[in-house]
Amino acid sequence: DTAVSQTPKYLVTQMGNDKSIKCEQNLGHDTMYWYKQDSKKFLKIMFSYNNKELIINETVPNRFSPKSPDKAHLNLHINSLELGDSAVYFCASSQDRGGLARYNEQFFGPGTRLTVL
Amino acid sequence: RKEVEQDPGPFNVPEGATVAFNCTYSNSASQSFFWYRQDCRKEPKLLMSVYSSGNEDGRFTAQLNRASQYISLLIRDSKLSDSATYLCVVIYGNKLVFGAGTILRVKS
Fold it and tell me: Cα separation of A79 and A74, whole Å?
């Protein structure tokens, strides 16, 4: 029974297109994240949502827009795709502990490999 | 200086060897630390949390040195299945930062 699932697993598209990646978690966690892992394998957080509220928004082009319809889902919409957007995008979830050290173990989805041609 | 730095490796070791990785962090106010493991073309998975007093899980030992601002991971009796990329994670406030990872290759 998959804990964090993402669709699609692979996405190949042309520059300039708009695409969405969906993420769902069935762990009952209240915090969800989007990460980007580039070709150098560097994993960088993009967004974090806690109970549908945005709490981290790193320096990411505004072509990227996360949407959280409920606390079990966090989708990522990307407008006007560029070559540099090619990467693996991971969704993750955790149970927020609150306070100064709020982030707990992250559970990652299998990743979406985006290739922009 | 990067917020979190790791030696990218690769560390090539024979089966049965003991290997250690370090991860340095720049923010002295960092509160929580973790080691994750990522297999090729897979998602990262939590290996272990890192506590101030150090902690051990089987062949794996994690330690934190706040004075020198680094965490370490020691793997004893390396197995072929330990081959992976090991990522350290440092958390302070709302910031959650992954290191770039250290590649370990265990050879028979």
Answer: 17
Instruction: Tell me the per-residue pLDDT of B65-105, one tens digit each, with 9 for 90 and over.
Output: 999 999 999 999 999 999 999 999 998 877 788 999 999 99
Q: Do B43 and A109 touch (CB under 8 A)?
A: yes
Is there a cis peptide before residue B10, judged by omega within 30 degrees of 0?
A: yes
DSSP A33: E
Give the mean pLDDT of A4-32: 96
Residue A2 clears pLDDT 80, i.e. is over it: no
Average pLDDT, stretch B24-36?
91
User: What is the DSSP annotation of B42-67?
Assistant: S-EEEEEEE-TT-EEETTEEEEEETT
Q: How far apart are CA B82 and CA B97, in angstroms?
A: 23
Question: Residues of B numbered 15-74 whose beta carbons fall under 8 angstroms of chain A's beta carbons: which are they?
Answer: 31-32, 34, 36, 38, 42-46, 49
End-to-end distance of chain B based on CA atoms, in angstroms? 37
Question: What single DSSP character describes residue A15?
Answer: T
Gap from A42 CA to chain B (nearest CA, Å): 5
A45 and B44 within 8 Å at the Cβ level: the answer is: no
Q: Which two tokens stand for residue A38?
A: 């580039």
Distances (CA, A) of A76 to A22, A79, A96, B42: 6, 10, 21, 20
